[in-house]
Design a protein that fits this description.
Methionyl-trna Synthetase, domain 2, globular, 46% helix, alpha+beta
Length: 430
């Protein structure tokens, strides 16, 4: 939509290729993490392309350029004394003889009682907690009960930025009307008080910590993954043989940065990434822009339950494309987006949207128009006569609909925009 209106747009995305899920999969399949990420990057890239997702670049966080970008942020913060080194207690598997990152430990959430919570975070209620608070912990490597063992990590002082982040969120909401669900997430975090967050972890796979005495430690994925948008833009600039082009977007006042994400990533794009950029801007001459808006969606569920790859519940995108073209699904998702609350994908709804709306309403309207034009006007457009009242009403609707739809799209209300367009087809059929 923005490209059609002539805007200078960069649409960047990429594969997040570090973190524990990669190593867990590699361990299970007895292969190297690189083989895992290569496979899934190609699968995802192919799926996006087949669904018509027109990214300017689909990058990956395993490339050298991203490692350099993330390490430059870490090193700058380290050298300027922004990071605090702390000793902490972390789960350790005595049988496997290794520290256990979050996903390698499963137990009962101390906040909601969910029995498959990670060592420091519950995906069910969103709570963050100290590993020592997790109940009934078990190692996913050996199945044994892990022990807490001392290790040291560097921490980013997120709490130091709380006041500025609250002011930033309030200002962006005032100027750009943030979604209520996004504001609720932000204010929930602010109410609980922002705490220091570890930016390193004990793991072999990931971006190496670029300082002395950091063997066996990598940069925590929450810190480096969001920087992937910057490194992806740098990669595109290099491919276009315009190495400084990325600065026109990331370091130029007036650029509008919009992050389209799901609700489980709200905190990283509204609080953590802005805090990282604020910290950089405070201590460096080259300043980055902050997100203008983060119109995050809630979750899309499948037939009344959460999508779950591990439980085999959901739809495989590649399998879907072997049976159906992409546009009916794109339309169904757009018409049922979980913009403000969770919604469900039902096969019956998909069938109904395709048959009753795309075919019977929109398709039928277009087909009848061409048949009528061929039968009465030999497919030529006749001279316009004096419109009757019903004609004038229809002409007004034709003129009003694009204006309404455009305003809705500008405010990230895709579902309502799709409804306006389909209502025009309904009116045409009448």
């Amino acid at each position: 939509y923005k490209r059609l209106n002539g805007a200078d747009i960069l649409y960047v995305c990429g594969s997040d290729e570090h973190g524990v899920p990669i190593t867990i999969t590699a361990d299970k399949e007895k292969i190297k993490p690189q083989e895992v990420i290569d496979r899934f990057h190609n699968i995802n890239k192919d799926a996006f392309e087949k669904f018509g997702m027109s990214f300017d670049i689909y990058s990956r966080t395993s490339i050298a350029l991203h490692h350099e970008t993330a390490q430059s942020f870490f090193k700058s913060f380290y050298e300027k004394g922004l990071l605090n080194e702390k000793k902490t207690m972390q789960f350790y598997d005595e049988k496997a003889k290794m520290f256990l990152p979050d996903r390698y430990v499963e137990g009962t959430c101390p906040n909601c009682g969910y029995e498959e919570a990670r060592s420091d975070e519950c995906e069910n209620c969103g709570a963050l907690y100290d590993p020592s608070e997790l109940k009934n912990p078990k190692s996913k490597i050996s199945g044994e009960t892990p022990v807490l063992k001392e290790t040291s990590h560097w921490y980013f002082p997120l709490g130091n930025y709380q006041q500025r982040l609250e002011q930033y969120v309030d200002l962006m909401n005032k100027e750009h009307n943030w979604k209520d669900n996004v504001l609720q997430y932000c204010r929930g975090w602010f109410k609980d008080g922002l705490k220091d967050r570890a930016v390193t972890r004990d793991l072999d796979w990931g971006i190496k910590v670029p300082v002395d005495n950091a063997d066996g430690k990598v940069i925590y994925v929450w810190f480096e993954a969001v920087l992937g948008y910057i490194s992806a833009t740098k990669e595109l600039s290099q491919k276009l043989n315009k190495p400084d082009l990325w600065k026109d977007y990331w370091q130029t006042e007036g650029t509008r940065y919009i992050a389209f994400i799901g609700k489980d990533n709200v905190v990283f794009h509204t609080i953590i990434f802005p805090a990282i950029l604020m910290a950089w801007n405070d201590n460096n001459s080259d300043k980055y822009i902050l997100p203008e808006n983060v119109p995050a969606n809630e979750f899309l569920n499948f037939e009344g339950k959460k999508f779950s790859k591990s439980r085999g519940w959901g739809i495989d995108v590649i399998d879907f494309l072997k049976i159906f073209p992409p546009d009916p699904l794109r339309y169904t998702l757009a018409a049922n987006l979980p913009e403000n609350k969770d919604t469900d994908f039902y096969w019956k709804e998909f069938q109904g949207r395709n048959n009753n709306e795309l075919a019977d309403i929109l398709g039928n309207f277009i087909n009848r128009t061409f048949i009528f034009a061929k039968k009465h006007f030999d497919l030529t457009i006749p001279e316009r006569g004096t419109p009757a009242q019903i004609d004038s009403e229809m002409l007004n609707l034709i003129n009003e609909t694009p204006v309404k739809a455009a305003k809705l799209l500008e405010n990230y209300k895709v579902k309502d925009a799709v409804l306006e367009i389909m209502n025009l087809a309904r009116a045409g059929n009448k």
